[in-house]
Amino acid sequence: MRLLTEKIRSKHLNIVRLIGNVVSEVKSSSSNVKFNFRTYDKDNFHATHKVVVPSFVMKNCPISIEKDQKLFINGKLTLIDFIRDNGKKGTIFKVLGLHINQIDNGEVEDVDDIDCQNNVDTERTFEVNDQNRVILESIIWTKIQNEDKFSFFSVANGRSKLNDEGCIQSVFDFIPIFAYDEKLRNTLKNQLNRLDRVRIEGFLRYKQCFNQIGEAKSNGYVEATRITKLIPICNTKK
Predict the structure, then answer these.
(1) DSSP string for 15-80
(2) Is residue 144 within 8 Å of 159, Cβ to Cβ?
(3) Is the pTM of the predicted complex or chain greater than 0.85?
């Protein structure tokens, strides 16, 4: 456990960037705002994400978040574990929204993948593609499993949270990673092992399943598109 703690507490990345639409009613409380957010990829495959925006972020928002808005969300991935009806562990993803931008026909800053055209009356318009992107830098915590059509493992990410007593404590999230691309799978088979430090780029994906009492749940995982082994050569301890 000490080895795990030391490795997780080393510097890591946890970045989620989404461009899409609010598809549910927005639920507000004194601590946060919650809503469902849908993104489409180039093959018209969609993913629906659970987004939580803390109250301290909402205080800096000049407008309220409403259903059908198109937004650019920059945040982090958090998760909650549950037990599936087959006795195995499931994972509910929640995107912690830290920077929220509304996308409109006006000037939009800090948004990737914007195609600009000048129409006949010289007014500037924007066509903004949806985005579903996650970047993680952490350690491989489980043994890499290689199946016929995919490989999978979990990475361990450390984060801080408030406990019931209002004190800050460290918790560990174990994020499931799936690789389907043959080149990625060869990298996992031949170059990577448990406890290696890696950078993972990919998408947030979901599969519907049921918990032990029959409730439908959205089981989350990261579909990796790139996995890079990181070998530290210089470390600075504070």
Answers:
(1) EEEEEEEE-SPPEE-SSEEEEEEEEE-TTS-EEEEEEEEEHHHHTT-SS---TT-EEEEEEEEEEE
(2) no
(3) no
Helix (H) or strand (E) holding 187: helix 182-191
Cβ-in-10-Å burial (0-12, 13-18, 19+) of 75 comes to buried
CB-neighbour burial class of residue 1 (10 A; exposed 0-12, middle 13-18, buried 19+) = exposed
Strands 89-102 and 46-54: parallel
Domains, the chain, in order of start with CATH, read 2-230 (2.40.50.140)
Q: What is the CB neighbour count within 10 angstroms for residue 127?
A: 9
Q: Which residues contact 110 (CB under 8 A, 6 or more apart)?
A: 72, 101
Per-residue pLDDT of the chain (238 residues; tens, 9 = 90+): 555 555 545 567 899 999 999 999 999 999 999 999 999 988 888 999 999 999 999 988 777 899 999 999 999 999 988 888 888 888 999 999 999 999 875 544 554 444 434 343 435 555 789 999 999 999 999 999 999 999 999 999 877 766 677 677 777 889 999 999 999 999 999 999 999 999 999 999 999 988 888 888 889 999 999 999 998 776 655 5
Residue with tokens 């996992």, as numbered in its chain? 188
